[in-house]
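Researcher: Structure for this, please.
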Amino acid sequence: YRSTLNGAIGEMEEQFADQVAAAGGTYVLVTLENGQTLTGRAGTEVLMRSGAAAVTQSAAVDLTSGSTAAVGEKLTENHLYLLQADGAGVRASADTTVMVRGSYSVG
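Model: Predicted structure, token format:
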């Protein structure tokens, strides 16, 4: 029981450290498994590095191209996206790596 609890606490500490780093203005490397969704708040930045993912909930601004990525649109590798609304995010359709700056959760 104790080892399970210690493992859960350790995982929570790592997640908390990532959240603090992201909120502090630095990018955090996040790996999403197929089917996982990264959900952010308005103003969260997502840099697509590898894999496959699409925009969820609300359109995102593609800061690299200066265009808008509609809900369901696939992200382009090495493009920086700005989430426009709380609850917006990206859903992975394959193992995916992104860099995130701002508040986010993975589920």
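Researcher: Any notable elements?
Model: The chain has a mean pLDDT of 91. Residues 2-23 form the longest helix (22 residues).
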